[in-house]
Amino acid sequence: MWAIIGIVLKIGVVVGLMQGTVAYLILVERKVAAYAQDRIGPNRAGRHLTLPFGIKINLPFGLLQPIADGAKMVLKEDVVPTYVDKPLYILAPMIAIIAATLGFAVVPFGPVGPGQVMQFQIAPGVDIGIVYVFAIGSLAVYGVVLAGYASNNKYSFLGGLRSSAQLISYEVPLGMSILGMVLLAGSLDLGKIMAWQDQHVWGIVAQPIGFLLFLVSGFAETNRLPFDLPESEQELVGGFHTEYSAMKFGMFFLGEYMHVITVSYLTVILFLGGWDFPGLSVEQTGLLSAILKVLVTAGKVSFMIFLIMWIRWTLPRFRYDQLMDLAWKSLVPLALVNLVATAGIIQLIRG
Question: What letter does residue 110 receive in the DSSP assignment?
């Protein structure tokens, strides 16, 4: 009974934290975009805030902007065009947000395993955690395809076609890029992969090609620039979500940013050592050590998210033929070479 209550509490904390984080990531991205374009960005919401009993405070950097944006999204009129396929039209954003949320079930936010004061994972001990994340993440393509199909709009349909081809294509090098780390660690458990890096060397050192492949494929999987062909406003108005408004559009937006967080966490866990940091080790199991490991992981993830935002506002968008050529003519062959080379080296060392 207590175990079930603990799991429910973990789910509530993780879902609440992720959605709150997404709200403020949008503010951070707007600030990064403003800096890249020599602007100021949002800085008004919360600047002169009056609380009950006449208490006045001045919040900097527009810290209440995400709350204002969220309220606007909730209160806007939810327009459903008459020509859409309504059941599928409503189902599409639900699939997008559910697929983005379920992936966090096996993501270790801190130390996991026997002896730890707390298991910082909703479902610890899943031996095929990385397979689960990829399987759930691949379901997001159904939401995009259904949105493009059900909207009965040519721009939406083209965006859905583009997205389905892009996601399916880049899942191949994305999956192959992590196999080198799986071979080295001898496990599909994300916690054990982090433990191997703690005892040996970070994945970015052991698998530099795998890290590069994973990062590029991760950009494509999250539909972020320079891979945002399914949404390219200059060509497709808004792509697969052209006909969506209010919270249905907000659910697609939320799902995209949650995928960014997932990719950042996986990059940190697989290639940047997870919570590994000088002075911290697997043997340390106290509460202070656990908190430090969570903070170290969160710091690395924050850096990866900032990097993703920085690249978005730095690089131009690919043409669609360049996008597909990069996947099938460059990333897939390189991933095969990396996998065979890693397997051969491991066999020579252990054999």
Answer: S
Residue 58 three-state SS: coil
5, part of any domain = no
The answer, yes or no, to whether the previous bond of 108 is cis (omega within 30 of 0) is: no
Assigned domain for 40 exists? no
State how many domains the chain has.
Answer: 1
The three state secondary structure string of 258-273 is: HHHHHHHHHHHHHHCC
Read off the pTM: 0.89
31 belongs to a structural domain: no
**Chain centroid to CA 334:** 24
CB 6 within 8 A of CB 14: no
**Domain containing residue 318:** 86-350
Whether 68 is in a domain gets the answer: no
For 333, residues 6+ apart whose C-beta sits below 8 A from its C-beta are none
Residues 6+ apart with CB under 8 A from 133: 103, 106, 107, 190, 262, 266
Distances (CA, A) of 131 to 100, 141, 188: 15, 17, 7
Q: Residue 77 — left, alpha, or beta (φ > 0 → left; ψ -120 to 50 → alpha)?
A: beta
Residues 89 and 103: their CA atoms lie apart, in Å, by 23
Q: Which two tokens stand for residue 149?
A: 């199909």
pLDDT (tens digit per residue) in 25-73: 888 988 998 988 888 888 888 777 777 777 777 777 888 888 888 888 8
